[in-house]
């Protein structure tokens, strides 16, 4: 089996650009994931983010998680748990308006460092979206514009820790799902593994790699590319020892952005075969649906949006 795609972004500036773009294309078509190195975000900054995130977990989150585990008697479970995950999380929103100053328990240093880090990630997300445009034959800026809506993209971060779990076979760190949004950028622990993606019906590890950023594609990119690129199921297996840090930033459409397949990517219909066309919808409506169906397959979500679309725009009724 081909190995997990790793992109050295420095190679985009030299002779190896073409080969590198091919690896990205193959990753988008066949993996839904790839890992970036030499992505321009300083290693020193990443080290500080990691140090402060781990300190914050120990200081503010760990005890709360232990109490939750005790209150639900999760240590002693005997059968598979399907309605919760073995994870400790909090969320930060950056765009359209930051809520970082309202999040309790964050000290000034941590806020400052996270702000600098996510500004780098935002630039990186836009750069990666343009690489995707280039591979798809879309004009530069097409995907950024498609996400824009009236207030620009939604950009937020889920900061997670996956503490050691005594029964990783019975309770997942995070149950299998595809991501609803656009482009996801992940800074994951380089020592404790656990993230897996589903490829050809097999769970494959996303390898921890120091100072890398893992990219994956959400459902909206599948819709805009009309299925040329796919969002891929992934999950987290908690480990019996070691706490895994995961900082996932979501570069998503604005809530009122209208999402639909890029016209140039919709194949022309042939006489006897109607090609599948993904639905057109407002991103916020998709998110409302996703909230209740995150851990289910994406196809029924696309179908539901298609049904809503035909309710909104009924076919003309023949009159006599
Ligand atoms: Fe995810």
From TrEMBL:
- Any single biological process term in GO: ethylene biosynthetic process
Against PROSITE patterns, the record matches this protein to: FE2OG_OXY (PS51471)
EC number(s) given by UniProt: 1.14.17.4
Q: Which UniProt keywords apply?
A: Dioxygenase, Ethylene biosynthesis, Iron, Metal-binding, Oxidoreductase, Vitamin C
A GO term for molecular function: L-ascorbic acid binding
Q: In which pathway does it act?
A: Alkene biosynthesis; ethylene biosynthesis via S-adenosyl-L-methionine; ethylene from S-adenosyl-L-methionine: step 2/2
Q: InterPro entries this protein is in?
A: DIOX_N, IPNS-like_FE2OG_OXY, IPNS-like_sf, Oxoglu/Fe-dep_dioxygenase_dom, Plant_2OG-oxidoreductases
Query: Where's the Fe2OG dioxygenase domain?
Result: 153-253
User: In which family does this protein belong, per the annotation?
Assistant: Belongs to the iron/ascorbate-dependent oxidoreductase family.
Q: What is this protein called?
A: aminocyclopropanecarboxylate oxidase
């Amino acid at each position: 089996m081909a190995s997990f795609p790793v992109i050295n972004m420095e190679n985009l500036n030299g002779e190896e650009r073409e080969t590198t773009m091919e690896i990205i294309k193959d990753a988008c078509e066949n993996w839904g994931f790839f890992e970036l190195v030499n992505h321009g975000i300083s290693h020193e900054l990443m080290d500080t983010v990691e140090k402060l995130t781990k300190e914050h977990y120990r200081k503010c989150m760990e005890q709360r998680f232990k109490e939750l585990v005790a209150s639900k008697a999760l240590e002693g479970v005997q059968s598979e748990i399907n309605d919760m995950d073995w994870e400790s999380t909090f969320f930060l929103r950056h765009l359209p308006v930051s809520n970082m100053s309202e999040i309790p328990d964050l000290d000034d240093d941590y806020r400052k460092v996270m702000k600098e880090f996510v500004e780098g990630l935002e630039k990186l997300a836009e750069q990666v979206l343009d690489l995707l445009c280039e591979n798809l034959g879309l004009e530069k800026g097409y995907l950024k514009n498609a996400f824009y809506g009236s207030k620009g993209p939604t950009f937020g971060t889920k900061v997670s820790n996956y503490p050691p779990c005594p029964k990783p076979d019975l309770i997942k760190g995070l149950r299998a799902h595809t991501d609803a949004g656009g482009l996801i950028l992940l800074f994951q622990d380089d020592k404790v593994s656990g993230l897996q993606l589903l490829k050809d019906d097999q769970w494959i590890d996303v390898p921890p790699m120091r100072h890398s950023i893992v990219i994956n594609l959400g459902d909206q990119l599948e819709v805009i590319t009309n299925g040329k690129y796919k969002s891929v199921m992934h999950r987290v297996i908690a480990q019996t020892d070691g706490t895994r840090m995961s900082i996932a930033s979501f570069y998503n459409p604005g809530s009122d952005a209208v999402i639909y397949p890029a016209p140039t990517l919709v194949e022309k219909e042939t006489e006897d075969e109607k090609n599948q066309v993904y639905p057109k919808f407002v991103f916020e409506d998709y998110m409302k649906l996703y909230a209740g169906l995150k851990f289910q397959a994406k196809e029924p979500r696309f179908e539901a949006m298609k049904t809503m679309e035909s309710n909104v725009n009924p076919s003309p009724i023949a009159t006599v």
